[in-house]
Structure prediction request, 229 residues.
Amino acid sequence: MMKNILLIVTNVDQYANSQLKTGLWLSELTHMYHAAKEKGWQITIASPKGRHTPIDPESLKPFVLDDISKKYYENPAFMDILAHTKSLSEIENTSFDCVYLTGGHATMYDFPDNATLQAILRKQYESHKIVAAICHGVGGLLNVRLSDGEYMIKGKSVTGFDWFEETLARRKNEVPFNLEAALKERGVYYRKAFIPMTSNVVIDGNLITGQNPFSSKEMAKTVVRELEK
Prediction:
């Protein structure tokens, strides 16, 4: 059965308090995109402002750039899509079977307080359709309130990039907030992998979250499986 999925990426290319570059963590988009494309599903890539999404240079380093991500990075047609993403306001009233928030540290700046994103996620979740987020993209779930005023993620089992992983990534002093602590403040049941920087995907009803870039492949498989149920 044909599915229609929305993949949301960032527009931010730099940390607010340093000259370091950031952006989309490429594999957190490419694995989901590839899995959906293989199924022949309809895919929309959108960002808060629309148009260009920068790619975090860290995600292009040889030891993290996997074969699938490399293939798409070298594909001019795919890169053109990333240069011309739709804005969230353009697709706000479109119906999707899955809304998926990609990661990258940049998402910590333009996801959490975006009212249009919150409206899309609230509608998606309350329609009992899949809401998925990976790594720092999970920050986009933090401030989503349901129609009853309660936080969407309160009382849910959720994962996301943890604070020790932030230390390993050497970005503890650059990030605008501690994602792990922020999630716990929302009253989630925070679930992290026993070993940092290893794959971890958590399902709670129609909410699916992945911990880090190493969860990209499992995340894509999990979302596909849940959509095909």
